[in-house]
Each structure stands twice: as structure tokens, then as C-alpha cells.
Amino acid sequence: MNIPTIIPLFLSLLLLFPPLAICDERQRTYIVYLGSHTQQYTPDQILETHHSCLTSVKDSEEEARASLIYSYKHSINGFAASLTPQQASKLNELEEVVAVIESRPRKYSTHTTRSWEFSGLNLAAGYDVAESMKKETTMAEAGDLLHRAGYGKSLIVGILDSGVWPEAESFSDEGMEAVPKSWKGICQTGQEFNSSHCNKKIIGARYYIKGFETYYGRLDATEDYRSPRDKDGHGTHTAATFAGRQVRNASALGGFARGTASGGAPLARLAVYKKIGGNTCFDEDMLAAMDDAIADGVQVISISIGADEPLSPVNDSLSIGALHAARKNVVVVCSGGNDGPKPGTVVNTPPWILTVGASNMDRGFLGTVVLGNGMKITVRKTLRLPLISAADAALPWVPDNETDQCLPDSLAPEKVRGKIVLCLRGSGTRYLKGVEVKRAGGAGFILANTAALGDDVFLEPHVLPTTAVTYDETREIVRYIRSAKGNATARLREPRTVLGYKAAPFMASFSSRGPNVIHPCILKPDVAAPGVNILAAWSQASPPTKLSQDRRSVKYNFDSGTSMACPHVAALAALLKAIHPTWSSAAIRSAIMTTASTRNNKGRTITDERGHTATPFQFGSGQFCPSKAADPGLVYDASYTDYLLYLCSYGLKNAGERFNCPKFPPPMYDLNYPSVSVPKLNGTLTIKRSVMNVGGDGNAVYFFSAKPPLGMTVTARPSVLFFSRVGERKEFTLTIEAREYYGEGGYGFGWYSWRDNYHVVRSPIAVSMG
């Protein structure tokens, strides 16, 4: 089999300085990446090296020092500086420079209770975690993942996000033990954040502002806190989902989802790394945060941030930071993006990152819309009132393709006043649709899904009575409005929280999809986790809608996105790290992937938002399954050196210090990954893999089975693996052969697995024809 050469995308991206830009003398921020530190230098020596590098392109030493923004001195070797394109181009030509990355605003952004119970993690209401840790373990508790992991109490976890609201009950340190001696970080003080805001739960906090202020000027203190304090809400929410304490009687605005809120690793110690700027994230600030987190002793990092488009390894600061984290065996978990259902949109896709997609749960917030013709439609949130479609109430100058969207200043008050308005999703934000209906005098609105959005509905704190409906329900309402000929009415009834209201999980429409356009031989996302209507702590400086005209304040809020799915998987990674402290970050990723499930709570295959069968390009290996991940049987391990060899094949030759690429590096598809992705198969391909026995019984026999993609065969050699001890490794080859041609470009999906009497070690396969 001959796979056509995949031209490394980053080679073109390295040509960052076209001829016209060379004459541009405006200063911009660039990251000059030098790889890793080759030996033990002091921070002052590293700083001088970076100054020297800058002096080679600046007019004076003083100018060089003034231009430096960050000097990365821990695991990452490099610096951020203000440079002209011409100066950046000169530095890019130096032998010791791996890459030069231009920073720009909006290159990255954030990807924005029941979820843990639904995922099978036992966080029962009324169960006191701190007290349970003091009691003698019972036989029943011994088998519980949380208890085995000590609820994460030995772990230091990091969150890179918008900061934290330290007063939230989720971050109480009551009953917690002393801070681990392995902690090397600091509690950075600032605006409305002092040393007392760090405790035995939030053991450290930092903020990063230099990149933001280099571009925008001094931060307006009314826009964000010049400290680790969170003014946005996103960081507090993800931190609480990751490692928040148990809080009884928590609920969102209106009392929805009332119950016990908890993070997945409730006794883990939390280190907060805040990037300033709300939804704006700068390369240089995030890279500085990751460099500090690795040096501080963080063991798992959760990052619900991603680029606005897939980026090559040398143009992606998160990828670079995560590679250095992998070198120190730190697990990095990232959200996969919210640009679905369009294919090829998944981000954070290097093989050293655990990438997470978002799924829906079985919890609904159901009320009833009673239409004037008596038809009842079950709805998700909140009067008999006139009902009108936004398309029938639009002002005359609104474009035809926007009349039904309730966009700002689009509705005629004389047509809307006192009515319920049907607004279609598609353009504009969901919250601002409600604002527009309220501006025009509407009494409420129905947020209606289009065909592309299917069954995805969100419970949100709108500014007036609101309900969200599925696409099928939208069609019924539109049909009724048309038949009523201007006399349509509707009544919105109060909703209630209902569990198990439909088959779940099912994939969220917004969750970004494969294929992986940057690393085609790596299937992404890796797994899926709950990411819709997740209840967690919130910043009380941020209204629940984040709109400036919203004056409400809440302690807990719903939010949706792969941002919310990411900390679920990061928490599971932390629990596995506690149970298996010697496992590598790759082994932990493998355990989570190979134990994931492709079935919903009805025993059927997971579907997408429209009810169609979902694929590995949506959920990766499947929905993460915490109860199984601690005992995967076998793991696919990989080392930092393996990743450097992968980069050699990719075309990057000097990523590691004192590491020379072999003349013929192994092909990218031979990286020991727990899934298989083959672009443009032409005939037959043989792939190498190895597995390590981590089962409780050293003597184990595993048998191969496969469900190949349509028109193909998948075989393993050997097809039986014999193990005599824990830690033993066995190699095997997979041969994928195309027997029938089913069209160029389209992907087919299947899986293969290794089974013994107790374990099923399952891996997805994605193959396209050449």
C-alpha cells in the first residue's frame, strides 16, 4: 500500500513572512521557540541568552531588553518579544530557532451535578467526601473509583482559563489536609485577590497579562480583574467541574437542577492560571502559563481553549506547551472546539493532547407549550398569549434570510408587543435574541432549532420567559402558525427537571468534528463527555448571560460547550493518576480511550443531534466511562521520544534537544496510538502497535477481533497475545486491506479489540480511500 505523501502543513506556515511583510516596520508580538533547555542553566543565564538573541536583530542592547515580553525558563526554551516582520524573519533563519510564531488576538478563544452521576461516578447527594476519607474502607467502597483515588487528594491539578471566584463554596478547604510538599508554585496577589484567597484547596494562582497589554494597552480594570480573580465565569465553571468540592442544594437561576454539585476530583488541589482578556487568548500568555504550571508541580492540566482553526504544531502555542508537559509526564486535556457539525473543524489535535468532544445527557427541563389548536409540545423551559413568527414581525429593511432570526433591531414593536415570538437559531447569539424580543415589547419567545441543530437544546437564563424546542417541534409550531392565519396563541407552562427523558448520550451539534486536518494519521477527538447544560460554580461578577444589560448575579450557572466536557475528562485523568502514579500520560489517555463506550443508556449506538448514528469523528473512541478506566487491561504507551520521532516524520527536525532525527523515521501512522486513522488508503497498509499488560493478573491471554470498515478487512499478527507478568509489552501488526472501492475521499469506520475474560480493549478505525 502506498499512501500519497502528506505535505507537512507547517512547512508552508513557516513561511510566515511574505515579501510585502518584510518592508513592514510595525512592531508585533512573536514567540521565538528554541525547543527545550539543553542543560541546567540558571534563570539569569537563560534570560541573558534570550537577550543576546534579540540583540542580534535590534539596534541596541537597551532596545533588545525593552522588547522582551516573556522569557520561558522552565521546560520551554524560548521568548516572546515585540519585533518587526523583518526582525522575526531574521531570527527564523537562525539554526537554534525551531519556529517563530506570530501572536494575534482572537487566534484562540474559550470553548464555551447530573453529569457525574450520568457518567457513572458515584457522587451521591448527602455523601460527605471529607468524612468518608477518615473512615475505614468497606469492601463496597474499595471497588469505587473515587475512593480508590482518594477523591484526588494527593493530586495537584491546574486549570488554564479566565481565573477563579475563590469565595465559591466549591473551593472551600474545610477538612482538607496540608498542601502537598511537591507544590512549588505561588499565590500571586492583585486586584481584589490577596494571599488569603489561596488555601488548602486553591493552593496557587497566577495571572498573565503581558501579551494582552502589549497589543491592547493597559487593561481597563472595569473589564477584567488585574489578578487571578474571574470576571467572566468560564474559568470558575470549568475549575469547579474539574475539582470543585461537594456543595449541597446547588441550583441554577430558577431552581433548576437542584442537588449536590461536585467536581470529578473533589479533593484535588487546584492551581489556577488565568489568561487576561475574557474570550481573548494570546499565545505568549498561555505559553508562559503552561511553562509555569509544569514547573509548579501540576500533574494534570485542563485547558478549555482552542484556536479559531486547526493549527500546525509549530504555529500552535498550546501544542508546544503540551509537548513539553508530556516530557514531564503531565497530562494535558483540551476541548476539541465548538465549530460542529462542519467536518474537519476539531482543534487541539496533536497526539500528546487528550482531545474532548461534547455530548448531551439524559436530563431535560421539560414544560409544555400549549398551542391554540390544543397541540401540546414538551419543552425545556419557561400565560395564554398571541404567538407570532419573527419572520412575520420583521422590519421591512431586514434581509429575507434574516427575518426569522430575531437579530438586534430587526423586530417591529407594533407587531411584537405583548406576544410570544418564535425565533430561529442560526445567526446571532441565543441570549441576544431574547434581548431583541424584550426591546420590541415581546412577552416571551420560543428559541427554535433548525434542521442542522436537531435535538440540541440549552437551558439558559434568558432575560424574559423562554423555551427551547427541537427541530421536529419547530416544524409543528410553524405549521400551526401558518394554519392559524394571524390568530395563533400559545401558553408556556412552568418546566420541571426530568431524568432519563430520552436516550443518551447523544452528540452535541456544536462539537467540532474530524477528520484531523493537521495530523491525518491521528483520529480526533479522542473521547466525548457531557458538555450541554452543565451546572457548576460561577463568578458573581458576571451575570448569568454575560450581557452588560443583565444585572442578575448567580452562584451557580448552566453552561455548554466542549469547554464543559474537557474538565470532566481531566478529572478522570487525575483520578487515574492517583490510582496509578507510575503510569505515563499516554497510558492514562489510552485507558480512558479504550474503555469508552459507543452505546447509549438504551443499549443502542450513540447518535448525533439529528438521531443519525454518530461516528468516531464525533466521539472518538466513545463516551468516557469512569467506572471502567482504572482497569483497562492493556494500554498503548508512548514516550516523549516517540513524539519527537513523530515530528521527524511530520517534517520538524529539531524539536528536541540533543535529538537527531534518523534518516528514515518511522511513518506517522506507526505512532503507538489507541486509535487508527488512515487517509487515502490505496490497497493494503500494515501498521505497527504495541500494548502493555496492566491488568491485575500477570498471566493473561488476549484474543483479537475486528469489525472493519465497509469493503475492507482488518487482521492482526499475532492474533493472540500471551502475557506472563504485569508490565510486559507485546508488539503486533494490523493489516488493513481494501477489498471493495467505495468512493474517493469519504471515510469508513470500524473498530478492533483485544479481549480476555475480563477486559475489552477497544480501538476505533477510520479509513478513507485513495
TrEMBL record:
Domain Subtilisin-like protease fibronectin type-III: 670-767
Major localisation: secreted
Entry keyword Plastid: no
Gene3D superfamilies: 2.60.40.2310, 3.50.30.30, Peptidase S8 propeptide/proteinase inhibitor I9, Peptidase S8/S53 domain
Domain Peptidase S8/S53 positions: 152-622
CDD domains according to UniProt: PA_subtilisin_like, Peptidases_S8_3
Signal peptide limits: 1-23
GO molecular function, a single term: serine-type endopeptidase activity
Family membership noted in the UniProt record: Belongs to the peptidase S8 family.
The protein, known as: Uncharacterized protein
Organism of derivation: Linum tenue
